[in-house]
Amino acid sequence: MICLLYILRVLKLLNWCLLILILITLIPSPESKHMGETREERINQYHEESSIPVLGLREGSLLHVTDNSAKLRGLKNAKLFIKEQESKEFEVGSDLSFLLHS
């Protein structure tokens, strides 16, 4: 949690506070005994209070940011959540630079 707060402060200092990156598991494993809410449900609850977009990076993926460019790298897709909109999947290699300017 401390690490996430530090990252958010750094992003805010860099004027990238419109984007929050979260490692995410969107679909619970069928073998799981956990009956709690999914991360997607938590993000929807978060959007009840905030309009900041959330980019869900799955384990093994990263957002490579250089200058004004942001590209999805790694092994798995990412999912973008924007308040009051359907979530959208992005494939590895996608240009997500628009998130830096929103």
Topology:
Elements: H1 2-13, E1 20-23, H2 39-46, E2 54-57, E3 61-66, E4 69-74, E5 78-81, E6 88-90
Parallel strand pairs: 1-2
Antiparallel strand pairs: 2-5, 3-4, 5-6
Low-confidence stretches: none
Per DSSP E runs of 2 or more residues, the count of β-strands stands at: 6
* Tally of helical segments: 2
- Report the radius of gyration as a whole number of Å: 14 Å
CATH topological fold name: Rossmann fold
How many discrete domains?
1
Output the structural class: alpha+beta
Q: Which descriptor suits the 3D outline?
A: flat
Second rung of CATH, namely the architecture: 3-Layer(aba) Sandwich
In words, what does this structure look like?
It is a single chain. The protein is an alpha+beta fold and 102 residues long. It has one domain: Rossmann fold, CATH 3.40.50. 20% of the residues lie in helices and 26% in strands.
Short description:
The protein has 102 residues and is α+β, with helices and mostly antiparallel strands. The protein is built from 2 helices and 6 strands.
Essential attributes:
Rossmann fold, alpha+beta, 26% strand, 102 residues, 6 strands, 2 helices, four-stranded mixed β-sheet
